[in-house]
Amino acid sequence: MGSGPDDIRAETRIETADPETTLKAVTDWFAEAGDLAALGIASFGPIELDPRSDRWGFITNTPKPGWQNTDFAGRISRALGVPVAFDTDVNAAALAEVCWGAAKGQRVSVYVTVGTGIGGGLVIDGKTHRGLSHPEMGHFRPRLDPSDAGFAGVCPIHGACLEGLASGPAIRARWGMELSALSQDHPAQEIVAGYLAQLVVTLQAMFQPGRIILGGGVMASPGLLERVRLQAIQQGGGYFRGDVREILTLPGLGDRSGLLGALALALDLSGSQSSSA
Ligand code: ZN
Q1: Each residue of 6-51: pLDDT tens digit?
Q2: What residues have their beta carbon closer than 5 A to ion ligand 1?
Q3: How far is the CA of 60 from the centre of ligand 1 (A)?
Q4: What distance in angstroms lies between residue 34's CA and the mean position of ligand 1's atoms?
Q5: Domain limits of the chain?
Q6: Fold exhibited by the domain 5-88+259-276
Q7: What are the C-alpha distances in Å from 110 to residues 4, 62, 70, 209?
Q8: Which of 14, 31, 94, 212 could serve as a FRET partner for 25 with CA atoms 20 to 30 Å apart?
């Protein structure tokens, strides 16, 4: 079997419908592909990742209509008779960036996506990190910017968590357009960068990652990455070790980190099986 992104033989895109229709289309496509050694799933969350749980592989309380409490990984595994590795899309993206992207060779690295929502995945020594569940970095609570104090945030659960303050919908909620459409001297630029920098310095304080990769649609906004870097140095107050321009970077795999993450999960699973066999 292949060993990386250069060995991809076929690719398809299936629009998400209800679970029944979608999962049938997925298993039909893979069944036609023939013999599979392993399959990796990089899923939207929240999902159950505890292997001791009888709900392992389930999508849990998602707001996505019809997908609550859906057996995802188990169902695909049974339909195809293949072992399945299951993780969040951001954990998988973090793993792909270690294997083939901007975090290659790093022992500890983080991948954060800033888009419709905000989420982050952590890889330590080649393994994605899971605790009682997967990390929920987007729901970390930053200190509110004083010039932003009138805004309650858009997270339905927490209001002013990071996702509630700095995601695409949060930006549109107070300024009426995307960050990239606002002028470079608009106050929104520094406000959003400041919130993201708070996550960065917190991650540095907790884990000292060799790379913090910032992906997602909002990060494509001109000048944003550089603003986050400068604010992270300021906020870190000397505790930000290493070269911020090396540590804080865009994905090396562009918008394919999540997709290639599923491949990385599958390769990891088939490797660990053959080594333990
Ligand atoms: Zn939240």
Answers
A1: 889 899 999 999 999 999 999 999 999 888 999 999 999 899 999 9
A2: 139, 155, 157-158, 161
A3: 16
A4: 42
A5: 5-88+259-276, 102-250
A6: Nucleotidyltransferase; domain 5 (3.30.420)
A7: 21, 23, 28, 7
A8: 94
